[in-house]
Amino acid sequence: MRVALSSAACLICAALAAGAQPFPNVRVDSESNSPEETSIGINPADPENLVGAAQTPPCRYYVSSDGGGIWSEGTLPDPYDLGDPAVVFDREGNVYYSYIGIWSHSGIFVNRSTDGGTTWWPAGTAIVEHDGAVPFEDKSYLVADWSGGPHHGSLYVGWTRFTDYGSGAPEDSTWIYIARSRDRAVTFSEPLRISDRGGDAVDSDDTVEGAVPAVGPDSRVYVAWSGPRGIEFDRSEDGGDRFG
Known about the structure:
By secondary structure, the chain is mainly beta. A four-stranded antiparallel sheet has the order 1-2-3-4, with no helix packed on it. A four-stranded antiparallel sheet has the order 5-6-7-8, with no helix packed on it. A four-stranded antiparallel sheet has the order 9-10-11-12, with no helix packed on it.
């Protein structure tokens, strides 16, 4: 049976066949011994500029300006950052960092850097926040619209809402939400629930979570997540204003 290789895989195979050496492993963190839940983004305006993220907690960021050879690191300047970090660049080179709030101040927040991750806003923009852990907003992930379509430059953040995290009560559940920004994360739309059916709040296989948004041609927005019914999916034809 023949297996078709992607163009990227073909280039790698050709480079190895020509004697090119694989890029060595590089340790990114130096100040913390327990980073987890990592994410990384590449600046399309400067491909040598990489930004990574990890939960330690609090949230940490890692920056390289030489394609990953040398890294610097720091912590986000936000008192509510707990973890579940995700980073993404827009096509203009701005980088966005989404994360969840702490147990005493639940929420979904997004921070922005306009200099390749070297400096960040003093505090993140709150998409939603609560004074306490009920409900608990969890597992955020984000994407920027690079499509050149009608909503080019928009930012979309998806996540899970636990009505009461860890509860096994039948009245408690989880739902998938999404919000969008048209002004580079300065403001966000009201959170929109897009899962037609929920899951339990135990944080188990029967919990709906793991929302991952993506943007296709003409600014169509797609979101996939997992739950008790398997992998579920929804899409928006109008830049995230409405879903099916």
